[in-house]
Write a structure and sequence with these properties.
A hairpin with a 6-residue loop joins strand 6 and strand 7. The radius of gyration is 16 Å and the shape is globular. 0% of the residues lie in helices and 40% in strands. The protein has one domain: Regulator of chromosome condensation 1/beta-lactamase-inhibitor protein II (Methylamine Dehydrogenase, Chain H). By secondary structure, it is mostly beta strands. Keywords: Repeat.
Length: 176
Amino acid sequence: MHNFGLLGHGNDTAHWIPKKVCGPLEGLHISSVSCGPSHTAVVTSAGQLFTFGDGVFGALGHGDRQSTNVAREVSSLRGLRTVLAACGAWHTVAIVEVVDSLNSATSCKLFTWGDGNKGQLGHADRETRLIPAYVESLRKLSFCQVACGYDFTAALSTSGQVYTMGSNAFGQLGNP
């Protein structure tokens, strides 16, 4: 079974018994993990984001379409604190703490990357993005939760509002 290295063990071998992920994650305290069908995202308690698996649509956020079978930090977010990440089929979403340069206030913003063919990245286009891109249309909001379906995204703002984007083929966006 070819799994694109999404288990993070440095190979493409399937494992029927749980096995600890080592390598770059060794010694780090992990706060959350998200799995898509072909890739995995891991957030550390220090706010680092690591991804591994199939990179064909840029879902890993490493600036290319390469797959990796070991955890690799998303370097474009280095120095920022990732709070949470979610994996769709071919896209990834992260909630990242951002400091406002005008008033030094911190808020949690949405960054998306990977396949945008159904609008699931929220950038008002259908372009693929190979590195995390700030969702400008939601700039006035702060987020606390995010989840991805196959080709759609749902995000919960800190004020309790749900925002959805992407395919609505089965009504999954909740919009009439």
